Amino acid sequence: MESPYVIGIDMGGTNTAFGIVDMRGEVLRRGAIKTQKHTDVNLYIDELYSALMEIIEEVGGIEKIKGIGMGAPNGNYYTGNIEFAPNLPWKGVIPFANMLKEKFGVPAALTNDANAAAIGEMTYGAARGMKNFIMITLGTGVGSGIVINGQLVYGHDGFAGELGHTTIVRNNGRVCGCGKTGCLETYTSATGVARTARELLEIRKDDSLLRNIPLESITSKDVFDAAVKGDAIALEIFEYTGKLLGEAFADFVAFSAPEAIVIFGGLAKSGDLIMKPVRDNMEQNLLPIWKGKVKLLFSALNEADAAVLGASALAWELK
Amino acid sequence: MESPYVIGIDMGGTNTAFGIVDMRGEVLRRGAIKTQKHTDVNLYIDELYSALMEIIEEVGGIEKIKGIGMGAPNGNYYTGNIEFAPNLPWKGVIPFANMLKEKFGVPAALTNDANAAAIGEMTYGAARGMKNFIMITLGTGVGSGIVINGQLVYGHDGFAGELGHTTIVRNNGRVCGCGKTGCLETYTSATGVARTARELLEIRKDDSLLRNIPLESITSKDVFDAAVKGDAIALEIFEYTGKLLGEAFADFVAFSAPEAIVIFGGLAKSGDLIMKPVRDNMEQNLLPIWKGKVKLLFSALNEADAAVLGASALAWELK
């Protein structure tokens, strides 16, 4: 009999969350461990194994598990390796998928977190039934997962879909952690929004609720709260962020002509504050053939479970 | 027995070229008719049929033909229609693939010319054996065909891969025929290069060989000839064109992580004059994971036959 469950593991820089998921996307069991606790990756895997086996036993043992999917920074689907991830305690190339497979005795695959989110959305969420869409995750950074012909795009080397590092400002763009300047991520991530706030508050003289907060500690959430109260500078920050995002989206559409762009993450929760300028500026920059035709959707996955669900969805495709 | 030949038809705004092609990409017979002669599309098809049947008989009759592939402006692979092509005499939606199929009694498919070029390059040319590459055609316009996982990307609606209409200049960009501003095509097509020449000659005072040509009639070929002779303004035009193209290529790489970008068309023949700045600026704007890894290749197809070969390649995949 086909095993009825999969395991999803979402490895972040701080926490590793995991869950056991059924075919309808219900998370039956949950757990988490600290990612940074062990500098020896084998000890990390040991702890993950113990924590997971406990909940695996609760659902009927490892025979019930079809496979393990993992979303991880710098995860490469083709090799199953995590390669040179700057925010993880283990350096170099770690053959994570193989290590999981050996430890648990079931198939395992990994990819990066934004790709996992795209697969999750296609399997359980807003992109169910879609063969062509682009997932954009707006968090600390800007990630993306691209689906074409029903398949995630990994490219020649497994690293395709780095749309957060396309250039949105060509001259005097902001310096990005990746070494480039002007990357979309430096403007439209949560940190990018906070950066825009600091810049605008420094060059502008008009009053703003944001001036009650120390400049260095302003977050995108503060900007949202101020915008909801009608603060002019905060509203302008959303307009600007949405403009850049909308312009970028129009270029993405010219590439793969998706049915929809699905947005996930903190910023997406700002609703129309961000979506209206995104939509307006995207439409303005689309070729006539696409005007009014590309859907902009919010993720349909419960935020707390989305990353685990996305990772788990990878496991359904395993042989 | 499997039919050994396919027909490729390249429909341009002025001429329609066609040929009979074997599996190794050899063009056994060639022909052409005027595209604009008939305002009734049925008469155009009739003339095409007569012209083609003549050479089909020479290679052994229609039983030898596996299918017909056509590259045409605004050709939609999914529907087989030519839809609202501004430079063709027939307005609205023309079900061209079906009309060919009925007339000739063999399977037929069509796509736009840049997509056909990509399939041609993958079947007979510089991208043989590649599963992930991007074809860029630099002609009167800038076209593109994107191959991912060995398949051409058509997107949700069949119109994917309009990279010539991604935005390369965001503020005060040039007006494009598509209705947008700042499109890559307005700077890096042959006409874009001539436009740059006119702009530069007007704002600059220094001497140039290009000043011997009436401003309105300067072509990209003139710029090339002047650059080869060491003309400073002409060289600057190539630098500028290559810079924009290289920056755009870096963003394309971030999307689909191709093994190579294959360039075709008049400008590509300028060799290092254009390729050096393209390469330098692409490399400078790539994420570290891709630096030094993405090949820039010239088309390996004989230019006179390339469009027909590309169209013909489509027919090998027909069922």
The side-by-side strand order for the widest beta sheet of chain A comes to 3-2-1-4-7
Q: Describe the biggest sheet of chain A? A: 5 strands, mixed
- Percent strand of chain A equals 15-25%
Total helical elements of chain A: 9
Average pLDDT metric of chain A: 94
- Per CATH, the superfamily of the largest domain in chain A is ATPase, nucleotide binding domain
Kindly report how far apart the N and C termini of chain A lie: 14 Å
* Greatest interface and its participating residue counts: A-B, 42 and 42 residues
Name of the CATH first level of the largest domain in chain A: Alpha Beta
Q: Helix/strand/pairing class of chain A, anyone?
A: alpha/beta
At the fold tier of CATH, the topology name of the largest domain in chain A is: Nucleotidyltransferase, domain 5
For the CA atoms, what is the radius of gyration of chain A? 20 Å
So what's the overall shape of chain A?
globular
E-strand count of chain A: 12
Number of domains of chain A: 2
Percent in helix of chain A: 25-40%
Assembly context of the chains: homodimer
Q: Order of SSEs of chain A, N→C?
A: EEEHEEEHEHEEEHHHHEHEH
Runs of chain A in which pLDDT lies below 50 for 5 or more consecutive residues are none
Q: What would CATH call the architecture of the largest domain in chain A?
A: 2-Layer Sandwich
Family (chains A, B): Belongs to the ROK (NagC/XylR) family.
InterPro entries (chains A, B): ATPase_NBD, ROK, ROK_cs
Protein name (chains A, B): Glucokinase
Pfam families (chains A, B): ROK (PF00480)
